[in-house]
Amino acid sequence: MKKNNLRQSFPRFLPLIFGVGISGLLLTSCSSELGITKRPDVTVNYLSQPSPETLNLLLSQYRSAVRNNDDNPIPGLHADYAILLIKAGKNEEAKKQFNEEIKLFPESQKYVEFLKNTLQK
């Protein structure tokens, strides 16, 4: 008799089990699809000047991320890297990164131009 009760209640839990499994699969695939795992762990603070050690660490992380960004470009990655380059005094290299951001994401042109003009003064 206990087996019948279990068999009768199992179909009620099936949609819940299925839903949880699908949700986990979607979350995992979406995060890798968006390139979340490729973006550097540290974000760029546009207003502050990091210490030289922090700046070098950020530059190396972003340089690596930009090099590995060909398959699935991440919006804003080249612009963030350009901002770090400006903070390091590498304005010509920063211009190239800003232009790459515009090339990959033309809809960001106005914002990137704003960043370029504001930060390179």
Write up what this structure looks like.
The chain has helices at 2-33, 52-67, 77-87, 91-104, 109-119. By secondary structure, it is mainly alpha-helical. The longest helix is centred in the first third of the chain and has 32 residues, at 2-33. The termini are far apart.
Order of helices and strands: HHHHH
Alpha-beta classification = mainly alpha
Q: Which shape, going by the Cα principal axes?
A: globular
Q: What average pLDDT do the residues reach? A: 75
Helix content: 55-70%
The CA-CA distance between the termini, in Å, is: 81 Å
Strand fraction equals: under 5%
Our count of helices gives 5
Question: Compute the gyration radius: what is it?
Answer: 23 Å
According to DSSP, the number of beta strands is: 0
Please describe the biggest sheet, giving its number of strands, its sense, and whether it closes into a barrel: none
Detail the poorly predicted runs: 25-37
What attributes does this structure have?
single chain, 121 residues, mainly alpha, 5 helices
Briefly, what is this?
With 121 residues, this protein is mostly helical. The chain has five helices and no strands.
Secondary structure: elements and pairs:
Layout: H1 2-33, H2 52-67, H3 77-87, H4 91-104, H5 109-119
Helix pairs in contact: 2-3, 3-4, 4-5
